[in-house]
Amino acid sequence: MALRPIRDAGLGIATDLDGSLQGHTIESRPTGTAMSATTTPPPNTPSPAGTTPAKASTTTDAVIHEVFPLGNQWPTLDPFLFVAHHRDAYPAGTGAMGPDAPLDGREIGADFADIDGWNMYHGSAVPGFPQHPHRGFETITYVRHGLIDHADSLGAAARFGHGDMQWVTAGNGIVHSEMFPLLNRDEANPLELFQIWLNLPAADKGAAPAFTMYWSDVLPMIEHTDANGAGTSVRVIVGALGEHAPPAPPPDSWAARNSDVAIWHVCLDGNAIWQLPAAEEGDTQRVVYAFEGDHVSIDHERLDAGNGARVDATRQLTLVGGPGGAELLVMQGRPIAEPVARYGPFVMNTRAEIAQAFDDYRATGFGGWPWTVDDPVHGTDPKRFARRPDGRTDGPPVEL
């Protein structure tokens, strides 16, 4: 297959590989603790919601230090680069696993307008993100509802969803696709997922690329009932929470070091009370994203749904769900504290390294694309599976 234009999954940025970096913006982010939505939007596109804090606390005793609205891409703190929350109300599917609905009015190839509550993204027949390269960071994809078909330049393939998590270490360079097959032909195909970009330190940006699957049954689920009988559930996606630990992260990840990296999905029933423990390290940075429900009280400070907050990670915090409950994504980690230079799907430390990434991709294709099409999907059987680069195949012990 020929090299395709680079498309930044989750952002919709296209870059002509035959062109030059000249005239384009390479984002450079200094080290520090300020929230940053590290995105480079396409020309004439407004900055994504969430890039400007709505409130910054001036009270030294406050546990909420900064509040910001959420959009499709959420602001992050070092060591994280990016969070995309995809929520699409896809209709019934066709025999070709695309939407059984007209595509009139959509910009096919770059459909992010959320017409009728769903998007084709960069897909033309099946929604999703056809082959595109990455270098210098990792993608963590947690799927709450629906299915994703993965394929990559290592020869790996997977169909995952229903609470599964996939971890891709781009390292020195990988090409992958993420397509959203609509398998239900007689009913809707809702999809909800989070894709999180975790930076790699300079010493590991040249690591060998890797593909890892974590089926939902190996991600611990904590169930807590408070003294009033209200419930809280916590899915431990990355990083131990007390005695509950998911499988180890990939060996070259920042999360594999003494980094206190964690990602937890917290669901509070109405008025439920739950204690969020203090971070293990004094320099850990923590963000709470309230993406669904009513509101949450964090040590008596209110955070409305649709907002995120940078919070004090050194204290145990009492979380209380509003009357309508709340769903939260908690993300934390010790900062890498290195300069960040980013252009589309490449994240390095300097502008020169970004230019080198483009040169390397033009020259090598990061190993080439072993698939006959840019947007592989893996048939109409809903069974989840992962085929590793060495040919080994496995799946979840229990199919949902």
TrEMBL record:
InterPro entries: Pirin, Pirin_C_dom, Pirin_N_dom, RmlC-like_jellyroll, RmlC_Cupin_sf
Bias type Low complexity, positions: 30-39
Region Disordered: start-end pairs: 20-55, 380-400
Pirin C-terminal domain location: 280-367
Domain Pirin N-terminal: 121-198
Record field: compositional bias (Basic and acidic residues): 380-393
Assigned protein family: Belongs to the pirin family.
Protein name, per record: Pirin domain-containing protein
Organism: Candidatus Neomicrothrix parvicella RN1
